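TASK: fixed-backbone design
INPUT:
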């Protein structure tokens, strides 16, 4: 299904690999315009370079799961803190410094996607191409740029807001995260209006109305705009054709990609063309579970494992706790199963990364509504699929605690946990009870701005 789509992505990657043909590097955050495109195919190729950018190590390939899952109590690096593992272990224990390679890669690669989107948006206004295609590409660019800015604002707080191509000599100025979010609300409203509800089979994987609306609601909830988020979320539920799959396990695996529950996925494809995903190898604890090495990164913590009840049908498709090694012995180890596959070569899996899915929409709508019979009904719709009984106002815990717990188990390892903890104001609270090495007093809300950015932009203020 995604092979035809990847013809476009490969064209975009050709564009990226020859940066002199598209953009020249300016100060790390942004890029200069060098050449512009005029035909429909030029703009399709240009926007595909932004989709291709989502695969990079600094975005969904690696840094995002490090910063948004491993930062929380969901996962850790395990006992190995040497070599590449040091970068992850530091983030897990809040011991990283501004030179950490993962936070640097996240900044650079996210802004790289933003820069590509800015060029598309700037140039397409004057292009004489089909108006419907023009609007669609603008919507795609606004969504992709917003997706990057959402993660950057969550991670770093005050960052540059660049919505035009960088001009040499321009001074970059930090703005507040709230200013970023307000820009995203404006952009995502435009994107939702411009994007289609779905695509033909050959272009499955592009941004849709549902994807823009889901991100819009998430931004609104981050700002505390629950009434506005409710309106958007009801629009998704009532107007866009998504549903919960009957079985949780059927969400995962190469054969289940882009299913009826999926709203937006980062598309990967194997085959030795540099487009395979690394998750199978990164998350596996053993070389005997798939082709190539198993690095055992992003390891589910015992605290998370123990959070599942025995009846929860989500546990088995999500987490493994043991495996048979080469000697035929059972080895105890927690590991992520959602991204298991059988790559022909190391780091070349066909498995996608699901960014948004419908279960998240239902739980966000419950959050927007607040404690009420309808909100519990939405939560229970998700719980019932997991084989669990209903909860209500008489169940133990506050409404926020119950909802946050449900989000943790339903969306584990999908890069929602740290943003959720920040949105609910529970970043320190979870470490008071979790059996982790982190003291609540050591928890920092924001990541350090990379040192190379401070060197280039001495007017930037570092996060504490």
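OUTPUT:
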């Amino acid at each position: 299904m995604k092979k035809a789509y990847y013809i476009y992505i490969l064209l975009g990657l050709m564009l990226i690999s020859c940066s002199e043909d598209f953009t020249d590097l300016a100060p790390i955050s942004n890029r200069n315009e060098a050449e512009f495109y005029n035909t429909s195919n030029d703009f399709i190729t240009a926007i595909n370079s932004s989709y291709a950018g989502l695969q990079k190590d600094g975005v969904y390939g690696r840094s995002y799961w490090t910063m948004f899952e491993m930062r929380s109590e969901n996962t850790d690096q395990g006992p190995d803190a040497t070599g590449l593992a040091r970068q992850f272990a530091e983030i897990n224990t809040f011991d990283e410094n501004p030179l950490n390679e993962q936070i640097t890669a996240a900044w650079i690669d996210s802004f790289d996607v933003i820069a590509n989107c800015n060029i598309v948006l700037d140039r397409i206004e004057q292009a004489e191409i089909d108006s419907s295609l023009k609007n669609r590409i603008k919507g795609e660019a606004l969504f992709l740029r917003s997706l990057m800015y959402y993660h950057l604002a969550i991670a770093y707080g005050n960052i540059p807001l660049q919505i035009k191509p960088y001009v040499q000599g321009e001074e970059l100025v930090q703005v507040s995260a709230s200013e970023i979010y307000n820009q995203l609300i404006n952009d995502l409203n435009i994107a939702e209006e411009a994007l289609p509800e779905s695509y033909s089979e050959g272009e499955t994987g592009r941004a849709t109305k549902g994807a823009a609306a889901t991100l819009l609601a998430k931004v609104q909830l981050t700002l505390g705009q629950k009434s506005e988020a409710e309106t958007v979320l009801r629009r998704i539920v009532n107007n866009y054709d998504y549903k919960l799959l009957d079985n949780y396990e059927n969400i995962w695996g190469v054969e289940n990609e882009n299913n009826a529950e999926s709203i937006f996925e980062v598309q990967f494809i194997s085959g030795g063309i540099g487009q395979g995903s690394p998750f199978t190898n990164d998350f596996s604890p053993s070389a005997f579970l798939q082709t190539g090495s198993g690095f055992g990164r992003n390891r589910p913590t015992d605290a998370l494992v123990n959070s599942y009840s025995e009846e929860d049908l989500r546990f088995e498709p999500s987490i493994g706790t043991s495996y048979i090694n080469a000697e035929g012995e059972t080895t105890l180890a927690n590991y992520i199963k959602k991204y298991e596959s059988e790559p022909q070569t190391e780091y070349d899996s066909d498995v996608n990364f699901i960014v948004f899915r419908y279960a998240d929409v239902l739980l966000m709508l419950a959050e927007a509504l607040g404690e009420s019979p309808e909100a519990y009904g939405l939560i229970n719709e998700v719980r019932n699929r997991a084989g669990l009984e209903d909860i209500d106002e008489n169940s133990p815990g506050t409404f926020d605690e119950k909802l946050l717990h449900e989000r943790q188990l339903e969306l584990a390892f999908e890069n929602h946990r740290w943003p959720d903890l920040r949105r609910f104001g529970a970043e320190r609270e979870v470490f008071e009870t979790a059996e982790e090495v982190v003291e609540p007093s050591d928890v920092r809300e924001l990541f350090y701005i990379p040192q190379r950015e401070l060197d280039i932009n001495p007017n930037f203020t570092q996060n504490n």
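COMMENT: The domain at 3-272+353-456 is CATH 1.25.40.390 (Serine Threonine Protein Phosphatase 5, Tetratricopeptide repeat).
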